[in-house]
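Dear support,

I submitted the protein below through the web form. The confirmation email said the job was done, but the results page showed an empty box. After a refresh the structure appeared. I'm attaching both so you can tell me whether what I see now is the final result or a partial one.
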Amino acid sequence: MQLNAVARLFYSPRLLLSTRQPGSLSSVPSCGLHATATLNDAGTATKSVPEKPKRPMNTYIRFAQSIRSSLASANPQASPTDISKLAAVKWQSLDQASKAKLEEEYKREQAVWLQKNAKYLSQLTDAQKEEIKLERQQRNEGKVKREQKRMLKELGRPKRPMNAYLRFCAQNKPAPGLSKEDNKMQMKNLGMQWKRLPEGERERYTKEAEAEMKRYQEEMKVWEDKMLAAENVIAVRKKNVLLPPSPASVKAKKGGIPVVDSAPVAKPKKPTSAARP
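What the results page shows now:
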């Protein structure tokens, strides 16, 4: 098992968002379309990258989409995942003639799309191509993060507790259901209340948060040991995968003189020319 390669993939550095030009906005991608926008002098959004031609659905997706509504009506209690499973069963029993017809429709639309996409790519500037590349990287990173979060939840990773301020907000925040502006104002008021909170009250929240953090760290140690024993190194924090630092390196970081266990190896001296008689 190539654990090191998997660990490097999981802990790859995040994309630096500072490379994006200031003022550019990304729209939410949907159904193969994407477009970006920038703010003009009037403050309104204008597209900087044209919409990409929509790629046609393949044969199976085309079939599944055509029967999804009927399956949902016949199975009102079924979840979207269950509907997809039912569609897969229907696909397996579909006759070859119907599959061939769907394949022909797909190929016709695919040929049209290839022409439109080639024209679309030829009209893009270098800046627009770079912007599309960055957006694709961000979408991929977002997908990886969602998959990681789902995986860690399934593996039962302990949930990190709230700090003192967030504990104060959670205990003093009214019932949900406020508008975005009202909620923003509410959080602002909570921040002001926290600053005016007596030292004794703030200390209580701090001690509660410290106790919860200690419990969390103990649970994380047990859980990560369990993950390492099961070779699930991808789920463990990077610092716990590495070997512990040596005493010498720890002392050097603190400003001390590192202890050298072995004697230093002397560098060979350069040969000198023989003395003339």
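Response: this is the final, complete result; the empty box was a page-load delay. The first strand starts at residue 24 and ends at 26.
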